[in-house]
Amino acid sequence: MKSGIGEGLQPLRRGIRGEAILTFKVMEPNRVRTNGAEYSVDNGATWHNGTYSTASTIKLKGLPSRQAILFRVCSMGTYQRKSAWTEAVKGVCGVGF
Predict the structure, then answer these.
(1) Rounded-to-integer distance, Cα 38 and Cα 25, Å
(2) Does some domain include residue 5?
(3) Which of 21, 77, 89 minimizes the C-alpha distance to 50?
(4) What does 22-37 look like in DSSP terms, one character per residue?
(5) Domain span at residue 78?
(6) Measured between alpha carbons, how far is 19 from 2 in angstroms, rounded to an integer?
């Protein structure tokens, strides 16, 4: 899938323990069925499935607090097409990013 997540993936600043909200821009929303998020607590060595959303905002819960976390997002379309993952962005859950 050539179209997918555009520029601007960023975690929003929030002080809620174990929670992160990611915002991003979808380049061609009419071709995207859902967006998926992953996170890594070991600087990208391993990635954990976060959640899926049809919106350009994804809320992740149950994350480790006060620990550096990398986030990335991809878009999924029909016929199992998937965009590339975004560049990873760093945040710290529970204390604001």
Answers:
(1) 17
(2) no
(3) 21
(4) EE--BS-GGG-SEEEE
(5) 10-92
(6) 30
**Burial letters 27-62, b for 16+ CB under 10 A, else e:** eeeebbeebbbbbbbeeeeebeebeebeebebbbee
Residue 3 lies in a domain: no
pLDDT-based confidence at residue 4 (cuts at 50, 70, 90)? low
Decide if 76 contacts 82 (C-beta within 8 A). yes
- Give a yes or no: residue 68 inside a domain: yes
State the CATH number of the domain containing residue 20. Answer: 2.60.40.10
Token pair recorded at residue 36: 């998926």
Q: How many domains does one find in the chain?
A: 1
Q: Which residue has the tokens 């060595």?
A: 45
pLDDT at 73 over 90: yes
pTM metric for this prediction? 0.83
HSE, CB side, 13 Å, CA atoms: give it for residue 28. 10
